Amino acid sequence: MTARHTARSIPRFVMVTAIVVALAHVAINVWGPYGFHRDEFLYLAMGERLQLWRMDFPPFIAIAANVQRALFGDALWSVRLLPAITGSLLLLAAVHAAYRFRAAPTLAEHEEGAAPLLPHLVLVAMLGSGVFLRPPNMFQPVIFDQLWWTLALLALVERQHHNDPRWWMAVGAALGLGLLTKFSIAFIGVGIVVGVVLTPLRRDLLTRWPWLALLLALVIGAPSLVGQVALDWPITWQMRDLAAGQLGRRSLTAFLGDQFGLVGPLGMLFAAGGWWWLMRAPQSRHYRVIGIATAVSWLLLIAQRGKGYYGAPVYPVLFAAAAAAVSGWLAQAPHRTARRRTVVGFMAANVLLAVVGLPITLPIASPAFTAAYAQRLGATEATRTNYGTQLALPQDYADMLGWEEQVRAVAEEWGKLSEAERGRAVLAADNYGRAGALDFFGPRYGLPRVVSGAGSYWYFGPGDRSGELLIVLGGEEELKQIWQSCRVLRTVGTAWAVEQERRVEIWRCERPVAPLQEIWAKFDPAIAG
To answer: Is the pTM of this model over 0.90?
Structure first.
């Protein structure tokens, strides 16, 4: 490695690109035709009811919600600002990893003529992958999870690059933040352990650093684990529900097939090349641990029937490895010019595919245009729901429509109640999207805080009113088993929404068989069917 290469880490144009990408996400959320996603309402509600040591989900997203709202308010762009910034940090981490890989012996020796394309290869691969474009545009744990996986692997790269076991502390910090964000960090954590055991890096186990890193990870992620213990392991029913629904149709074929939609065929080829270079190239032998860790994490995900995007956090480092490999290939004489043309053609094809798919990847066009465009492209997989049904729009887009209209309709019905009725009435909703929308938009329409027995909302409790009068957004005939008198007040919905949100009934129920506080256990998600 040359001193010049060591001093120059990330080129200025890469920094500028990262800033522009973050600003583009902000612009989409300022002027775009869509609103909040149903999941975002839940995470904002979790922040409002934050109990750090008693959360059924890892609490990082709730903490982030409170920080963002305190600093920037409740606008769509401000709620999604931190994900936009995180997406750009992920770009920078991937480019940095590429430079670290390229410092491997035999690559740094051929710096001239190859280095200029190195960051371009990483940026094109990352920005040409929908799985790294859409998550920064939504306030969900996904983009943060991608960053923590990448930083954990990058810290391992740094440990090898500097031959300094103290970098294990950075690995531990990244894994701890991952544990605070999503339990899926366990997959790459196990992968790293297997990679260490199967490579000479296992010598580090005789030092204190990996064990201190483990302790650090557990300390940072402790609220996630303590919350599970305190609430009797809600992850068990969450996984049960996923296995019975969204994960029920998962398979090896489905998992691998998803990857083509996440990063495209060229992205898959590029990532596969990066993994092969990590595992087989003599100059990358110090980084075998990365190849093993990524492979093991995928094998575990496939065995657990995980969704395709669960494994996406391995791509930034694999793209970086591929860029380093291609950089070395370009530097080899003869045929440099022909090889360079081949690589430039590859990048151009990836950019073209990304541009063609952009209306399906980011919410930049109206629902009508997007639906027609998806139909013309034949993008059936992109508009298929988690349950296998077909929509006109990508499910994420459909889940961003119609929420305030539902809340406005509820407010109109609530306003028809007498003052005495409003004093004793309970406002409820039957899924977390509707409950979260009522929580978020409700105050501007004069609505009280909502109660719901749906998922995480159950843990927020039933409140102190008996429920003798209940106004429910959504619901079914089963309400009549608990309230003696129930009738539908009106129906509201949006044609572009997911199926269950196109016709939503607003119910009025009276005279429960017991006070709401006594019957709350019937809604316990751990025993619900």
So the answer is: yes
